[in-house]
Amino acid sequence: MNTPDYVLHSHQTIRGLYAMLCGDYDKLDNGTPKGVEMLTQSERNQACLPAQLQQNGFATHYLQGAGLRFMAKDKIMPHIGFDATHGLEWFTNSNYLEFPWGKDDKAFFEGALEYVGQLKKQKKPWMLTLLTVGTHQPYSAPEDYLERYDTPKQAAVGYLDDALGQFLNGLERQGVLKDTLVVITSDESHGIDGVRLASSWGFNLMLAPEQDQLPKVKSGIYGHVDLSASILDYFALPFPPALSGRSLFRDYETGREIMSFTNDKLRYHNGQGTLTECDFQQRCRNYASPGFIAEHATLTGQYGGKRARQIAARATALDHSLLRTPLNQHYQFGSSAIIPLQTAIKDDWADNLIGAQYLEMPKGSLTRVRLTVRSVDPQQDAYILLKAKEREQDVPLGLPAEMIVTADQPLEMHFSFDNPQPRKAFSFHLLGYGLGAVEVSDFSVITELPGQDDLPTNIDKAEG
Question: Does residue 100 contact residue 125 with C-beta atoms inside 8 Å?
Fold first, then answer.
């Protein structure tokens, strides 16, 4: 079943995963991802799809082809109900090509097929969420694919397409498709040149044992906020009130409202034939459009003022579904995990040792950071750098360019900085290199108004 009018609500992997696995919109701006915010919650996470299936007897597994710490997936995935969460460290098979993020797609799906074989031996139903990384920049692909396609991006997509086809063939040979629902979708889209709304256009393909009962093409507007509801509906399981969305396995007589924020444009379809698109200055355009992702749309008017503010207010209300304010949230990105170091830092993003990315700091606030890093090998020193970026541009923090860490002398640092203007998409990059391994036992971040005294005592006592 193919659903052509399928909406992606935002950019970034962690935001797409949150929307599809937790039945809720992620931020319709560049604020702190709700997956990170959910780490402060102990109830809403139990409504997410993995937790719901876990409570109904499923074994729940997450496997991705990259390291888990980036965007804090090492913490978020267990928190929303995955029994087992694995990244690059799980794979023992070799890559077919060098790729900075981790496994190339052919190697990834070959490993995933082995993982499925292990799950099949269990005597209980299972859920497995797979995340590929091969179509992420810099779009690595084998030489023969690069020769066949016009761009590296097209070559990477072609390589993924073939790898996924081989994976599905493998599932069929193993008999998995006889009793398993398979959903193929994307976490985000950065668009296709010349294709209108392509940055919000996702895909959802479903393979089900009851294939003859499903339409080949599903009509209606759906999106990632509907995926959890759809899978619970497929298995006839209860629907937690905290989840939103419609089931792709049902037909509805009325339209529905749906929103998206991609490429700095806020988009809203009212379910009655009108799509509104607003820029960051709250200048909006209305289009007559039967769907969200429609082949053609006719401009019917432009406006600002109160009507534009109402669209923004809808997005703001959805943004606050978990937390009313980003202030006074204590985020802990450290853990007891032992992290092997590389001999050199190759990429500020892929080599990040922690998951403190794309955070929000309100205007006039103060952000405090505490970190503790130690080398776990008494014979090996580790070299540590801490960088910050806002909207992927470097932000000077006044920190040393490089710090040496040993087993006897761990790095213990406490610093703060002001936020005279709002900060969004603010990322910390803790990087390290050497011949050993490190433990980042503490990386605490809290943003508050100056003069507040409710910062946890253990942070107040930290020394720089």
Answer: no
pLDDT band at 453 (very low <50, low <70, confident <90, very high): low
Three-state DSSP class for residue 36: helix
Same domain, 241 and 388: no
**Tokens 């794979």 sit on residue:** 91
Which region among 308-322, 338-352, 445-459 has the lowest average model confidence (pLDDT)? 445-459
Question: Quick count: other Cβ atoms within 10 Å of Cβ 24?
Answer: 24
Q: Which residue has the tokens 């109160």?
A: 306
SS3 462: coil
Residue 26 three-state SS? coil
Question: Which tokens sit at 300?
Answer: 């019917």
State the residue range of the domain holding 221.
6-261
Using one digit for the tens of pLDDT, what is the confidence trace for 225-264? 999 999 999 999 999 999 999 999 999 999 999 999 998 9
Query: Rounded distance, CA 17 to CA 29, Å?
Result: 16
The structural domain count of the chain equals: 2
Q: Assess whether the previous peptide bond of 215 is cis (omega < 30° from 0).
A: no
Residue the block writes with tokens 């619970």: 232
Mean pLDDT score, 42-54 = 97
What 3-state DSSP class applies to 359?
strand
* CA terminus-to-terminus distance, the chain: 57
Let me know if 188 is exposed, middle or buried by CB neighbors in 10 A (0-12, 13-18, 19+). buried
Tell me which DSSP letter residue 217 carries: B
pLDDT digit string, tens, across residues 265-291: 999 999 999 999 999 999 999 999 999
Q: Indicate which CATH number applies to the domain containing 30.
A: 3.40.720.10
Can you read off the two tokens belonging to residue 252?
């509805």
Is residue 280 domain-resident? Answer: no
Last residue of a domain, one of 261, 286, 313: 261
Cross-strand pairs, 102: 66
Count of H helices and E strands in the chain? Answer: 10, 22
Q: What is the mean pLDDT of the chain?
A: 93
Nearest to 294 by CA among 179, 366, 196: 196
Mean pLDDT of 395-406: 90
Question: Can you tell me the distance from the alpha carbon of 277 to that of 404, in angstroms, rounded to the nearest whole number?
Answer: 50
Q: Are 260 and 271 in contact (CB under 8 A)?
A: no
